[in-house]
Amino acid sequence: MAGARATGRDGDDDLVHALRAAGIADVDGSALAQALYSCDASLYRVPPRVVVRPRHTDEVLATLDVCRTLGVPLTMRGAGTSIAGNAVGPGVVVDTSRFLDRVLSLDPQARTAQVEPGVVLSALQAAASPHGLRFGPDPSTHNRCTLGGMIGNDACGSRALAYGRTSANVVALDVVTGGGVRTTLTTGVGSAPGAGSGGATTAASGGGADLVDAVRGLVADHLAVVRTEFGRFGRQVSGYALENLLPERGTDLGRTLVGSEGTLAVVLGATVRLVPEPPFRALAVLGYPTMADAADAVPGVLPFAPTACEGLDVRIVDRVRQVPGAVVPDLPAGGGWLVVELPGGTAAEAEAAARRVVALCGTADAGAVGAHVATGAEAAAIWRIREDGAGLAGRTPQGRPAHAGWEDAAVPPARLGGYLRDFDALLDAHGLHGVPYGHFGDGCLHVRIDLPFDREPEAVARQRFRDFLGDAARLVVAAGGSLSGEHGDGRARSELLPVMYSPAAIALFSRVKDLLDPDDVLNPGVLVRPAPADADLRAVGARPVRERLALAYPHDGGDFSAAVHRCTGVGKCRADLTATGGVMCPSYRATRDEKDSTRGRARVLEELIGRPRPSGTGAGPDWGSPEVHAALDLCLACKGCASDCPAGVDMATYKAEVLHQTYRGRLRPLSHYVLGRLPMWSDLAARMPRLANAVTGSRAGGALARRVAGVDPRRSLPRFATQTFGAWWLHRPVDAAAGGAGAVAPHGRVALWVDSFTDHFAPDVAVAAVGVLEAAGYAVEVPQGLCCGLTWLTTGQLDAGRERVRHTVRGLEPLVRHGVPVVGVEPSCTAVLRGDARHLLPDEPGVEVVAAGVRTLAELLAATPGWVPPDLTGVEVVAQPHCHHHAVMGWTADEALLRGAGARVTRVGGCCGLAGNWGVERGHHDVSVAVARTALLPAVEAAPDAVLLADGFSCRTQLDQLAGRRAVHLAGLLADHLPE
């Protein structure tokens, strides 16, 4: 399905035909595309008729022409991370992120860059960084948000405190208005952040000059309104930025278009201002009794000229602690914190600046209860908490889903503390809870709220939502603030603008809209003539799916629909996380197709599983929908999202459920019977391994085996061990144990659980593990005949898989209850007992016992009193942590062990691309190789003499087949360096 583009259906065929006739190559009117683009990161669901992915500017212009001719709405979309519903629309959605994603030029002397609208901010930062430059504003979504989207909602981010909003950093815009006028507008952006044009008239080409004259005439009749109601403080983002049209600001139409949310013009390209990047930064972290107390302290911090001043609440930090493998730095005492970033020309200067803030603002007299300076890895970990805020806040401390809709109001910073207290009281009055955080230096508060969409009748939930919005709007306006301080109004707040602006100002919005977009083609229903705030709510349309499920979904009330609705749409799965050791989403990194992102898959599942089916198409979820299976086909079940997604989406689990439900009582693909039951066939092959290898190693036998198993012909088949580990263990001489027969093991017993892959294909790994454990002072015992059923689970054969897991849990439980730790050597199998077993066997009493007792080799060794690792001084290690290891157990113990032993460690982020049976199946080879090339293969090629460390059998197989390099398991590396 990768790269496939279906035609439109029903009434959309004419629109699809018209767009293709206009020369647009990538036009998609399929149900799959409609599901993928029906939502952004907001509360709203508006399925489009057609999705266009333009390859060049001419295709954008042609799309607008078709939409104007046919009267079809057009909505521009970048990364789809819009929280206010700015990037969904009922007509044509234009996705610029797929192809219009280049930095066209960069001028270090002029400190400018020319970009296409779909370029990701982090790509621009990477291009500017070698010149010591950066684009100033940086939203928390910087590694996936696009410049076009930032221009659309006048994005700010944490460092807008130092560099201003996007509108203060756009030099020129290449746009076409809704009326079809193409023009280049040169803005009045000066050299200082937030500078106006100083009275110079904005330059405009073509028909743009006439537009400037027309808006000048509009504003001339409303000077008092514009001067008194607009531009009152730095985060007044709601509505159109009409203050830029004042004559003293040069009638700056370009800056007015920034933040107009795609309702006035389409951005075709932009020239943006770059600023010097401070060489070093340090954080002053100040703790206060409450978040409101932290907000009170902001005015005292701002005179130190920080580049950022962020607010964190203890509830966000507690959410991070619930994420497996997450690094939570030590924070000062308190229930709320200010994270104050100070720049410096040297590390010492930055740290000294942070210490001055701590010394003067981090004292009891200043209201603080704790303070310290953070640099390096600690500072990076704190920033990760802040950047993941929108996803982490998707669940309240009570475990309820929390929603956007009222999430970025702003007030003048001096009034923030009082506003926070009043806002908390408002939440209490409405019986709601929220998890707040924000850009406190700018007076901007973010919050997700447990609005009652999932627990009250629809009509009641809608009314409660509307009542709360009205009260919240009046509260922030009374504090001199703005309904939106960052994300724009979109579908969430446009209806509320009359609470903030006078009728004259609202009428002026309409006149500006009618001038630039006279036919209301661009993003209708937003800002002007708005749709009701409770229209098209995504969560309201969802229905529970609880019947006949194979898995428990304990954190979602047993509801599959609630589980897939965990996705908030913030799009972290579209980001390149490899630099920080992240995994998700490997197939999206390879294809750049929305359907291959975790978010895209969640949207398709929401649409086709969690919503009522059209009448006459059958009752219940549409598990077998071709669109569902197309979206899930390239999911590697890597589980990276289970840890990397801040909302806790676990697509591997959802895929297993879909496969189980689809093939319940039906014939399955042949590969499910072969690869999905590989341990069973391996047991048979173990009786005659040489014969099995001779057959599968021959040309005819191998070709037949691949065809039957559904294996790509380019893949090599693994060879069965001539002696399994189980056979080796049973025939091992008694005196071969450490210390000889009768030796006392100072640390007692340990159970080495050997999975089917290790037993049949890599017994040397288990042999090495025995040697390491015995050298560490353990008496090793090996439970026999216990399989976790992993291959059954990944192919959705959950009934059979459940019984295998049950058998294994019951076999290991007595050992754990007697204090015997269990060590797993294959990460994916170990992860089943640490995670998946809970979903499969929620009522099995031994599940939690075994989950707590099963450890990785590194975890056990790190907890062994007095254990000293072998000396690895000078050994260069390139490590590929298995995805399940990263996601379920975390790889911190392994890394600490290696570094403590003296090794130089390079940790590779991302996935190896094989992922068990997935990467060998027909139809997956090219994507599997592309995944490996995103991070793993370049890291291996860059270190030809390094030891390659990969605990996963799949990872070692991929390296062998694609790189021709042999990788070792941690047990093998340690065993090779044990003293004689």
Description:
- The chain is built from 44 helices and 25 strands.
- It has a six-stranded antiparallel beta sheet.
- A hairpin with a 4-residue loop joins strand 5 and strand 6.
- The two termini are 55 Å apart.
- It has six domains: 10-95, Uridine Diphospho-n-acetylenolpyruvylglucosamine Reductase, domain 2 (2-Layer Sandwich), CATH 3.30.43; 103-276, Uridine Diphospho-n-acetylenolpyruvylglucosamine Reductase, domain 3 (2-Layer Sandwich), CATH 3.30.465.10; 280-487, FAD-linked oxidases, C-terminal domain (Vanillyl-alcohol Oxidase, Chain A, domain 3, 3-Layer(aba) Sandwich), CATH 3.40.462.10; 554-662, no CATH class; 680-862, no CATH class; 876-976.
- The chain is of the alpha/beta class and 980 residues long.
Brief summary:
The chain is an alpha/beta fold. Helix content is 39%, strand content 12%.
Number of strands: 25
Instruction: Identify the CATH architecture of the largest domain.
Output: 3-Layer(aba) Sandwich
Q: Report the portion of residues in β strands.
A: 5-15%
Assigned CATH superfamily of the largest domain? FAD-linked oxidases, C-terminal domain
CATH class of the largest domain: Alpha Beta
Low-confidence stretches: 1-11, 191-200, 738-742
Radius of gyration using CA atoms only: 29 Å
Helix segment tally: 44
Helix coverage percent of residues?
Answer: 25-40%
Structural class, from secondary structure content?
A: alpha/beta
> Separation of termini?
55 Å
What strand order characterises the main sheet? 5-6-11-8-9-10
What number is the mean pLDDT?
92
Overall 3D form: globular
CATH topology of the largest domain: Vanillyl-alcohol Oxidase, Chain A, domain 3
Largest sheet: 6 strands, antiparallel
